[in-house]
Specification:
InterPro entries: DUF2790. By secondary structure, this protein is α+β, with helices and mostly antiparallel strands. The chain has one domain: Protein of unknown function DUF2790 (Spermidine Synthase, Chain: A, domain 2). It contains 1 helix and 4 strands; from the N terminus they run αββββ.
């Protein structure tokens, strides 16, 4: 279930990305846990997902509705799994 939520977050964040990246990130990294309430107004950047077939950490930098920047770490399935 946690993996599904992480994949949903990654998909949602991918749709929201406007191609902007940031070199300045907050010092505090928040860790996503099932049920965490998120206030995502704008996604600033997403980390690259490695080409492995296992669950890996991913990072999203976003701004909340108050304009505060957050860095969120969550788990996502790597892009290296194939059915061929």
């Amino acid at each position: 279930m946690k993996n599904l939520i992480a994949l949903f977050l990654a998909g949602f964040a991918t749709l929201a990305v406007a191609g902007e990246t940031s070199t300045v990130q907050p010092a505090t990294v928040e860790h996503y846990h099932y049920g965490t309430q998120l206030d995502i107004a704008r996604v600033v950047s997403l980390s690259n997902i490695p080409k492995v077939c296992e669950v890996v950490p991913a990072t999203m930098v976003y701004e909340d509705s108050q304009g505060q920047r957050h860095t969120l770490e969550y788990q996502v399935m790597g892009d290296g799994c194939s059915t061929h």
